[in-house]
Structure formats: structure tokens, C-alpha cells
Amino acid sequence: MNNVNGSVVGSSSGSGDGSAPRRNSKRPKYSRFTQQELPACKPILTPKWVISVFTLIGVVFVPIGVASLMASNDVVEIVDRYDNVCVPLNMTNDKVAYIQNNETDKSCTRTLEVPKHMSQPIYVYYQLDNFYQNHRRYVKSRNDAQLRKKSQENETSGCDPEKRTKDGAPIVPCGLIAWSLFNDTYIFAIGNKNLTVNKKGISWKSDRDHKFGKDVLPKNFQSGPLIGGGTLDATKPLSEQEDLIVWMRTAALPTFRKLYGKIEQDLNAGDVITVTLENNYNTYSFSGKKKLVLSTSSWLGGKNDFLGIAYLAVGGLCFFLAVAFTIVYLVKPRKLGDPSYLSWNRNPAGH
């Protein structure tokens, strides 16, 4: 038995001493790719190079910032908040009851003075504050297939809670977004002459052509007991109802502006505009604000100082750093090391 066991042990121990080579480590096979030794740009940040880069950024950014601020300052903007002043004095303590009473007169007159010459087109916006169009449930409450094709008017999935009437008939357009359509109206006049507001072309052409059907007509819209906002013309297809199209492109922030129309004539400095508006939209339930905005535009768009200030801040900071590094380099220079002593230069093959 001992001899048998010894032979077994000897044979098993001898099987590990074969002629096959054994790997002494887990190091992978050498490759210039895996060892990151392929040709590459490895710049050395010398003081002259760093100072030059900061100076170049400053030279480019500062003029862009100045041009952006000048363009923003050329935009003439009139902003008037009217939600508080257009409530009767006897109803200021219960604004929600005032706005929900359909028999109460909602008309209001505001006077605006033009501070500077305003060249056409003059864009008319309404601005809402504290209105969260980006709420997940609100954004999802629509059906795009229904908006595009008449054959899909019965498709109301995703439109809760405004999808069907009590009789089960589909609401077109369905969903909370359409139901809460903004419905304040504005009429502008200078003296005895009314200013025409062009409401054509205020929406995106892609929305009119591809998202809202030319054969889809409103049906059973705002027919329930609770009215959320404006109504629609039942004889006009959705592709022609641009107020709805503009409203249904939801905003990303709780404070937003949406285009109401365009005044296509110049306004002179000192002109007094009389605005007759209907204060219909309920923002009092959620402590919202309503503002009327008249604005021109520039090559950069509307009035926005942020872009110019950002460019000036970055450009100024780069100029400051360039000057600081230059002073340090001149006052207390430091000898640079020899790049030839770097590891990848001494041993380029990586072995």
C-alpha cells in the first residue's frame, strides 16, 4: 500500500514539473496601445506658452462681450405687470373669487409710454411667473397622435384628467396643456388709432407643418364644468390656431414668456400706448404673476445681458491671470527642467 501511495504521489507531483513554461506574473502582453505609448501631443506648460494662451482668450472674449452688451442695450423693452392692479378694490382680498366669477367684468386699461424709438417688428409677449409648465404630469398630459391626424381623434391615452367628456366623447385637443390655454387678450391704441397686432407666423413652422394637423378640428373642448383657460374656434384646424401651438411648446422654467403677436410699425419716443386688456387667466390660485412685454430685437435676439457679462468676466479673468503670471515670471523666474530627462523621452519603447 505504501508503494502504491508513493507512486501515486510521485506521479502527481511529477506532473507539475513538465517541460511547459510557467508564467511568473500576470503582466499582459506588451502593446504600445495598452501601454499608452502611441504618438501623442504632450505639451509642456512653459510660462510663455501659458501667458500667451490666457492673453489670446482675453483678446477674443472681451470684444465679443462688449459687442453682446451693446446689442442687448440696443433692445428697447417695456414690461408692465397688471395682475394686481387689474383687480377691483373691493375684490383685492379675494382675487380667486373675482377671477372665477364669469359675470364679473374683467376689462382693464393700462397706459404705457415708449422710452426710446422702437423699430418694427415690435414683439408682444405675455410673461407668467411661478407657472411650472415643466411639471412631469403636466408635460405628459397630451397626445401627439391626436394632434396630427383626424383619424386618431379618439386616441386620448396620456391625456388624464382631461381626456373625455362625461358622455365618453373624446376631447380634441385633450390634456392639461391645451386645457390651461392662456386667454388674456390685449388691444393697443395710440390716441384714437388702433395698433394692429399680427398673430400670423408667431409659432414654429415645423410645429404647424408636422405636429398639428390641417384636418384636425377642435371638438368638445372646454365643454366640462371646470374651464381651465381659453377656447378654440371649432371651424379652424389646429394648424391655424397659433396661440394654441405657442402655448403647447412648454417652457423649461417657471418664469417664461410666450409670443402673443407682432406690431409691424415703428413707435416713437414719448408715444403713449393705451392697452385695453381682458384679465381672464387665473394666476391667483398659485400666487403667479402676469406681465405684458413689448420688445424689439437685435442680431443677438432679445434683451439679455448675461451672455455679454459672461464673456467679459472670462476675458477679464484671463487678462488678469496673464498679467499676474507675467509679473511672477519676470520678478522671480524659475529655471525650466530639461525635457530629455522625462521618462517617455528616456525610454520611448516602454521596456
TrEMBL record:
Q: Which domain of life is it from?
A: Eukaryota
Where it sits in the cell: the answer is: Membrane
Q: What is this protein called?
A: ALA-interacting subunit
Cited Pfam families: CDC50 (PF03381)
State the similarity comment. Belongs to the CDC50/LEM3 family.
Task: Give the membrane topology.
Answer: Multi-pass membrane protein
Transmembrane stretches, start-end: 49-71, 306-331
Q: Where is the composition biased (Basic and acidic residues)?
A: 143-153
In its keyword annotation, does this UniProt entry include Transmembrane helix?
yes
Is the Transmembrane keyword given for this protein? yes
Q: Which UniProt keywords apply?
A: Membrane, Transmembrane, Transmembrane helix
Region described as Disordered: spans on this chain: 1-32, 143-165
Predominant cellular place of this UniProt entry's protein:
membrane
A Gene Ontology cellular component where this protein is annotated is:
endoplasmic reticulum
Composition skew (Low complexity), residue ranges? 1-14
